[in-house]
Amino acid sequence: SLSQRLQNALGALRGKGRLTEADIAQAMREVRLALLEADVNFKVVSRFSIRATERCSAAEVLNSLTPAQNVVKVVLDELTDMLGGQTQTLELAQNKHPNVVMLVGLQGSGKTTACAKLAYLLKSQGKRPLLAACDVYRPAAADQLETLGRELDIPVYRGDGHNPLAIATESLAHATSTMRDVVIVDTAGRLHIDDAMMDEMYQLKVALEPDEILMVIDAMIGQDALNVAHAFAEKVDFDGVILSKMDGDARGGAALSVRETTGKPIKFISMGEKPDSLEPLHPDRLARRILGMGDMVSLIESAVKVQQDELREEEAQRLAHADLNLNDFLEMNKQIKKIGGISKFIGALPGGDRALSSGKVDEKIFERMETIIFSMTKEEREKPDCINGRRRARIAAGAGVSVTDVNQLMKKYGETRKMVRKMMPSLQESAEHFKKG
Ligand code: GDP
Ligand code: MG
């Protein structure tokens, strides 16, 4: 399975103290193969691979994790992004009665079942749904919906005509007269995309002005489903996807490809035939499930949290001691630079203070300072006390300035730092505030 393959790919890194570029490349190659084998679209895979490799080598890493764990974290984050990042919900207009949700998709994709499940979900959220049976082609499609509705105690409007458009518009009136606030429209599918079906969906869309058109995609068909989704997106357009049959031995490929190839979010996944088996998609949870490695992932997540807490604490400590590092110094000067621009403006106003305008910051000095600070390591910027003579020489060479320039900057920084220490009480207040936040 995909989980198994991913675990093997990443498991090979375990226990390695340091990862070389070759280690990462090898692991990424394995991950790529695993995704391709799971039927993830190849363009999606190559974009994934580029991003993940960049992030692994960009030293965007947590110290508290081993190199292998860091790679797993990158893969997990990227999988989450592929699944859309944030959980998406139904967007039903507030002032519209009734709201309309229309389900479209190929025959057998799971539309009728999903209509009932969605109605059940909305009912459990306090809505009063009505199901509309607009599939007039499939024998007994309306009966199927009616049976499901009866089980869930949700009314079904089936009309008696052969015209889906008429049934649909009647169902809206029926909803209003029976105080139903959301109509879920089941539509006809075909085995393949054809023009007649597209026309019908388009007419329904125009007549019903649905709040949401959801495309039901069978997770088991993989790549093919994407072509269908593309055709739909072009001709009818839709707002989101319900990925059905995720309980089967789907290889996960469809789930991972849908978002990037159609640009539409997966809003729900369907995990079985029971009415309560429709769930909103939580990209982080699904990514975790696809990746497997439950223990490792929990460990990573707690390490991320610890790291965040530590950073917060360190920052609070530093503020409590009113200690200014070079990052703060840079930020401060950026602000001053901005004010410099403003003071020039004020000085130019009639009655403006000429003296103020003469105090403007010299752009070149600021730029040089920035160049020097950018030539420092992260450690040097955060803990400037470690910057000794040798480091100064290296920084000067890196920034293309003289050591005297670096010395001048450090002197200025030292003075500012002292000044800030004097303002300690007010800073401590903000440190307290920071700690609470
Ligand atoms: P439609 O033609 O698009 O309306 O598809 P149906 O709703 O009639 O579903 C086709 C078949 O797939 C039925 O046998 C359903 O019970 C089954 N089905 C639908 N959704 C799921 C699911 O999430 N999991 C499983 N295992 N079966 C499903
Ligand atoms: Mg159906």
Account of the protein in words:
The protein has about 425 residues and is of the alpha/beta class. The chain has 19 helices and eight strands. The protein has helices at about 1-10, 20-35, 40-55, 65-80, 110-125, 140-150, 165-175, 195-210, 225-235, 255-260, 285-290, 295-320, 325-350, 355-360, 365-375, 380, 390-400, 405-420, 425-435, and strands spanning about 100-105, 130-135, 155, 180-185, 210-220, 240-245, 265-270, 280. Strands 3-2-4-1-5-6-7-8 form an eight-stranded mixed β-sheet, sandwiched between helices. The model is unreliable at about 345-355 (pLDDT under 50). Guanosine-5'-diphosphate (GDP) binds near residues 109, 244, 247 and 272.
What's a quick, concise take on this entry?
By secondary structure, this protein is an alpha/beta fold. It is about 60% helix and about 10% strand.
CATH topology-level fold name of the largest domain = Rossmann fold
Count of discrete structural domains: 3
Helix-strand sequence: HHHHEHEHEHEHEHEHEEHHHHHHHHH
Helical content stands at 55-70%
Instruction: Quickly give the structural class.
Output: alpha/beta
Q: Count the helices. How many?
A: 19
Contiguous low-pLDDT stretches (5 residues minimum) are 346-357
Largest sheet: 8 strands, mixed
Strand order of the largest sheet: 3-2-4-1-5-6-7-8
- Distance separating the two termini: 43 Å
